[in-house]
Design a protein that fits this description.
The chain is of the alpha+beta class. It contains six helices and eight strands, in the order αααβββββαααβββ. The protein has helices spanning 4-12, 21-24, 28-35, 123-131, 138-142, 148-155, and strands spanning 39-43, 48-60, 87-92, 96-103, 110-121, 171-174, 184-187, 201-204. The protein is globular, with a radius of gyration of 16 Å. The protein starts with a helix and ends in a 9-residue tail after the last strand. The structure holds a DNA duplex (13 and 13 nucleotides).
DNA sequence: ATCAAGATTACCT
DNA sequence: GGTAATCTTGATA
């Protein structure tokens, strides 16, 4: 186990520029658009897991019946009502965790679901968690993090990570690739029954780690 | 106390 | 393309 000072030093020496909390405190659709191409970074004891965000969906308490926050604050969704910059993690279908980036001001109740990630570093750790082995086939690789539940499994994001500040040192977002407007696809969101008409799913076109067309 | 729904995934034909 | 698995949550009584 690293000492606190050594930990701090190793975090600061990473080749990633951490996104400040103020970034998250703007309108959810603005944040959502800029999330594409950024890196999700998770520091663990032995490794550093990194992945590029390639698919996202916005949810908003104010005009969006599909959002967990639509009917107001509850024990489950209260993190969504904090000011932007925290991770909202929920458990679904008795099996899976999904993670969201909380946006906008306090009490707004808006967040962006991370649906697709292109693995960059720590792939053997992700593989072990998803498939129980470090070596995986090409077919397994494309299935590693191309869905919200798969991402949380691979990155080890569970109940304990709910409410984690994204401006801390263990789990954060970092500057990534600039994505051209022309290579961004926009559709309605996946897997919901209400508010299907809202075109709030953004993804990087042609990227293999997008969960669906 | 009971119950139905759910921001998914894996596996089947 | 279809569906079973699995259990937490929030609503209702």
């Amino acid at each position: 186990m690293l000492t606190n000072a050594a930990w701090q030093k190793s975090v600061n020496s990473l080749p990633f520029r951490k996104i400040p909390q103020t970034f998250y405190q703007q309108a959810v659709l603005n944040v959502e658009l800029k999330l594409l191409g950024k890196f999700l970074v998770k520091r663990e004891e032995e490794t550093c897991l990194v992945g590029k965000i390639v698919e996202v969906e916005a949810y908003d308490a104010r005009f969006d019946e599909a959002s967990h926050s639509f009917k107001g604050k509850t024990a489950r969704n209260k993190v969504m009502f904090q000011e932007g910059g925290y991770l909202y993690v929920y458990f679904i279908y008795g099996n899976h965790f999904c993670c969201n980036v909380v946006c906008d001001k306090k009490e707004v109740g808006a967040a962006v679901l991370i649906r697709g990630i292109e693995p960059v570093s720590g792939i053997d750790v992700m593989s072990k968690r998803r498939f129980g082995k470090k070596e995986i086939s090409a077919k397994e690789l494309v299935n590693l993090t191309n869905g919200p539940g798969k991402i949380c499994k691979a990155f080890g994001i569970r109940r304990e990570e709910n409410g984690t500040p994204l401006f801390g040192d263990t789990l954060f977002l970092a500057e990534g690739e600039k994505i051209k407007t022309t290579s961004i696809g926009i559709t309605s969101r996946i897997g919901i029954k209400k508010a299907k008409e809202l075109p709030w799913r953004f993804f990087i076109k042609e990227n293999t780690f997008v969960s669906a067309l």
